[in-house]
Specification:
The chain is α/β, with parallel strands linked by helices. Helix content is 53%, strand content 12%. The chain contains 12 helices and 6 strands. Strand 2, helix 5 and strand 3 form a beta-alpha-beta unit.
Length: 241
């Protein structure tokens, strides 16, 4: 990531940032109307996209919070639709069980997280690489995360970072709201989502900052540039032999 270059240099390790491979995995643009039609969603609907993570523990901790937050938004007079990205690493039957009784029409989407991100108006998203994907696509989001308390306390002692969301770390400031541990409640999540949906100025500022994050990640072709640099170093090493 861009901010890591300086860390390596301080340690005396030669380092070059070649870009991020996500720029090759995320399409330059998406047809939202086509995506919504594919998911059976009305074109003009207010759509909440849920990305509760790729590990079973994450999903169990985060999905109930996300579902209840969406229900609270719907209860305030909004007609909402919900789409949920189902990671290949989690049990879809468990996802279905967690969604039962939520009082929501949840569309499950497998193997297409980018489509869920592009088709939604706002995202509830676990921290991690997915926040960078969403920033590249340009969909406003709220980051939410919970850990077992002992794990969280150990992490606080061992890891000192200003944010947990990679998009915020790349930006150098927390422009995407982060709800962590006791802050990760349905009421707080619904409140943050409501602000995104209702405040056009706030929403556009977030999108502008996401565009800046995308530019900081460099142009497409990172893998090719990395391979070229490795080959260059090998050629230099052979020349010295």
């Amino acid at each position: 990531l861009p901010f890591e270059v300086e860390l390596y240099r301080r340690a005396g390790v030669p380092c070059a940032f070649v870009g991020h491979p996500l720029l090759d995995e995320v399409a330059p643009s998406y047809d939202r109307d086509r995506l919504r039609a594919a998911y059976g969603l009305p074109r003009e609907a207010c759509v909440i996209g849920l990305l509760p993570g790729s590990r079973a523990g994450e999903v169990r901790a985060l999905l109930p919070v996300m579902l209840e937050a969406a229900r609270l938004l719907q209860g305030r007079g909004r007609s909402l639709k919900v789409i949920l990205a189902v990671a290949e690493t989690v049990d879809p039957d468990e996802i279905k069980r967690l969604c039962e009784g939520a009082g929501l029409d949840v569309r499950l989407v497998a193997r297409d997280p980018n489509g869920v991100m592009a088709g939604a108006d706002v995202l509830f998203i676990a921290s991690g690489t997915a926040t960078l994907q969403a920033a590249i696509i340009g969909t406003p989001m709220v980051i939410v995360y919970k850990l077992p308390w002992l794990t969280y306390l150990l992490a606080r002692l061992l890891v000192r970072v200003p944010s947990i969301g990679l998009a915020n770390l790349v930006a150098g400031r927390r422009f995407i709201p982060e709800l962590i541990q006791h802050q990760a409640t349905p009421a707080r999540l619904a409140e943050e989502a409501r602000r995104i949906l209702d405040d056009a100025s706030y929403r556009e500022r977030m999108r502008t900052e996401m565009t800046r994050v995308k530019s900081l990640l460099g142009p497409p072709g990172a893998s090719e540039r990395a391979a070229a640099m490795v080959l260059q170093q090998l050629d230099r090493a052979e020349a010295r032999v």
